[in-house]
Write a structure and sequence with these properties.
alpha/beta, seven-stranded mixed beta sheet, four-stranded parallel beta sheet, 11 helices, binds 6-O-phosphono-beta-D-fructofuranose
């Protein structure tokens, strides 16, 4: 293999740039040219790709977002779109592809593999919902960003005897919410998985008020059955003691410089992905299992969602007293 391509796809995640840099430099180490596909599958279909030199990936290790950019694309989900993508790769003499992204992006990678294109995936999504890997690129940074916000909110909450509803990202998976709850000292956590009702939240916050707490935090995952504004209005009407305020962290959670953990994770995964591709592997995702990196079939990783360890829900509850 003499020429491969790399793309970042789906929602951006801090550490994607570190992974691109690692792929390019690992390729150069093995005398393989690495092309960068801009704007993910949309760029692939447009044939928008160019050689990445070592200098072009200088100074990006610490940058959030993705220098290759990303885009959501419907056309590539169709068999015709996939054929067109394969054709664009042939036109550019690309012999293998590394896809860095979340579950939807990895499903696209699996499709290319099924067409006979050698493909390796790298999991990157702040949600930590990708099956097969303990963690994905961007999760640690996003969690630290959330904790920074929760800590700040508690300062102001305590000063005013207020309860805050903090809405965090996680469309189908409440990992960020549950971890933010445990590590940010929240009174209660609501996720798509745990089925906590608005009445239960009201009771828990009211209880905290009666026990003499000067602040309370409820962390709500965006994928929960009700949204932050609805919950905040409900709590206000319940007169639980605390004044209620709402903060939706939104896309602030996706940006920012990757943590040391994410830089290392992305760097190791990038180098390993190149090694896998050059050793003839295809249709696999780099997974972190314990302290090791292993190849996992993309088919398995994209056909189910990673579940939160039930112990974390217990921890969140026990520590909220
Ligand atoms: O999958 C990552 C994620 O940040 C989710 O947590 C969130 O629901 C979604 O992306 C938001 O997507 P967009 O940036 O397209 O609004």
């Amino acid at each position: 293999m003499k020429r491969v391509a790399v793309m970042t796809s789906g929602g951006d995640a801090p550490g994607m740039n570190a992974a691109v840099r690692a792929v390019v430099r690992a390729g150069l180490d093995k005398n393989v040219e690495v092309y960068g596909i801009r704007q993910a599958y949309q760029g692939l279909l447009a044939g928008d790709m160019a050689l990445l030199t070592s200098r072009e990936v200088s100074g990006i290790l610490q940058r959030g977002g993705t220098v290759l950019q990303t885009a959501r694309n419907e056309e590539f989900k169709t068999p015709q779109g996939q054929r067109k993508g394969q054709r664009r790769l042939n036109e550019n003499a690309i012999e293998g592809v590394i896809v860095i992204g979340g579950d939807g992006s990895l499903r696209g990678a699996q499709k290319l593999h099924e067409l006979g294109v050698p493909v390796v995936g790298i999991p990157a999504s702040i949600d930590n919902d990708i099956w097969g890997t303990d963690t994905s690129i961007g999760v640690d940074t996003a969690l630290n960003t959330i904790l920074d916000a929760v800590d700040r909110l508690r300062d102001t909450a305590t000063s005013h005897n207020r309860a805050f509803v903090v809405e965090v990202m996680g469309r189908d998976c409440g990992y960020l919410a549950v971890m933010a709850g445990i590590l940010g000292g929240a009174e209660i956590v609501v996720t798509p998985e745990n089925g906590v009702t608005m009445n239960e939240i009201a009771s828990s916050l009211e209880d905290a008020y009666i026990r003499g707490k000067t602040h309370a935090i409820a962390v709500l995952a965006e994928g929960a059955p009700y949204q932050g504004p609805e919950l905040a209005r409900f709590l206000e009407q319940k007169h639980i003691g605390f004044e209620i305020r709402l903060t939706i962290l939104g896309h602030t959670q996706r940006g920012g410089s990757p943590t040391a953990f994410d830089r290392l994770l992305a760097t190791r995964m990038g180098v390993y992905a190149v090694e896998l591709l050059l050793s003839g592997e295809s249709g696999v995702m780099v997974a972190r299992v314990g302290r090791e990196q292993v190849p996992m079939p993309l088919k398995d990783c994209t056909s189910r969602t990673r579940q939160i360890t039930p112990e974390y829900f217990d921890l969140a509850r026990i520590l909220s007293r």
